[in-house]
């Protein structure tokens, strides 16, 4: 009986490594479907000690220059990476289809190829491997976005062995793989893109990058829920995971680092995607303001934080009498559940007659605002639309709204106030206690409000003649 139990086959989850004695369709550990497969009986293996080729050295004698970042030439991308690409690092760039991943990395590859490399050489050799398009298609895009460079090499390959052969013959300083889900290894069964293939391809490319000091950029696909396709171990193997975000109908693209071993993870890069390519935006606040010279009821400007970068965002509200028994609550760029809470608080705590009216809320420029600091701006925009009285054109508001109607302070107040003053705003409606968190910029008047009722009264008071 004991011998028969030892010979019984085992099953293992390819995602998390969970084992079981019988096959199941769903992993009992990570709850993934279709990842449990037979691996045979589990045996205990030991590894003998091998001769050490590179002995351990004191930490003070380690050469830190090997981890210095080399700028790519794209300032916003370098900001997210922590200064540039470190030789031997592997960066995974993930995003939805058609959002601009290939365009950005082609621009990065061309700019890196034009810059000087290590050792005083004039240019750097860059190898761009595409598994989704032909070399001619990539050439046409490069001409359109002006990403031509003499030391930029293109290869259209889908076989891992051929890709490694291209690396051997080219000896690049920067390697771009577009994308890791389209490369397949002949040593592993299954089609390209499955869990085993992605794991094998990524492990081989990472081993080459680490052993030869080649900075590598991997493009990764995402699933319907926005997570990176393939095994989760892929995110653990790479050094940097960069998420490419943006609305398909908007020009703005945000690049944020989800994981970064060489820099911070709270930096965000802003890009403008157009027909002629993708351009970094050092000052993207202008995209989210309507630039209207007339004061219109139902608009309010707030300051949001994307990472450590403050962005000016305009919120627009339209409140009209409802023609149906159940009033509509439509939002664009805002969280509908949070908007419903703000509507209830505004009606209960500030006495706004908004219960029987349709409420439409939107942000300018297609930006997505989810930060609680925008609650006060949303409430003031709706209050302005209800009274049909515009707010001051040079006013800005930010603060978190509670169910009791109180206003709570938010983080990053000095940066928000400095950004508002830089763009010419003269009045800021903020929660009580904000002024004591840091210096107030010159020319900016800070109006502290303890609750939503006082904020509405202060913002919508009649202007002096």
UniProtKB/TrEMBL annotation:
Biological processes per GO annotation: recombinational repair
Positions annotated to bind ATP: 95-102
Sequence ranges assigned to domain RecA family profile in this UniProt record: 66-222
Any GO MF annotation of the entry: damaged DNA binding
Locus of motif RadA KNRFG motif: 259-263
Gene3D superfamilies: 3.30.230.10, P-loop containing nucleotide triphosphate hydrolases
Name recorded for this polypeptide: DNA repair protein RadA
Primary gene name: radA
SUPFAM superfamilies noted in UniProt: P-loop containing nucleoside triphosphate hydrolases, Ribosomal protein S5 domain 2-like
UniProt keywords, alphabetically: ATP-binding, DNA damage, DNA repair, DNA-binding, Hydrolase, Metal-binding, Nucleotide-binding, Stress response, Zinc, Zinc-finger
Protein's job: Plays a role in repairing double-strand DNA breaks, probably involving stabilizing or processing branched DNA or blocked replication forks. DNA-dependent ATPase involved in processing of recombination intermediates, plays a role in repairing DNA breaks. Stimulates the branch migration of RecA-mediated strand transfer reactions, allowing the 3' invading strand to extend heteroduplex DNA faster. Binds ssDNA in the presence of ADP but not other nucleotides, has ATPase activity that is stimulated by ssDNA and various branched DNA structures, but inhibited by SSB. Does not have RecA's homology-searching function.
UniProt organism field: Knoellia koreensis
Keyword NAD attached: no
Sequence intervals crossing the membrane: none
Keyword ATP-binding recorded: yes
Region (Lon-protease-like), start-end ranges: 358-465
Entry domain remark: The middle region has homology to RecA with ATPase motifs including the RadA KNRFG motif, while the C-terminus is homologous to Lon protease.
Family the UniProt entry places it in: Belongs to the RecA family. RadA subfamily.
A GO cellular component annotation in the UniProt record: cytosol
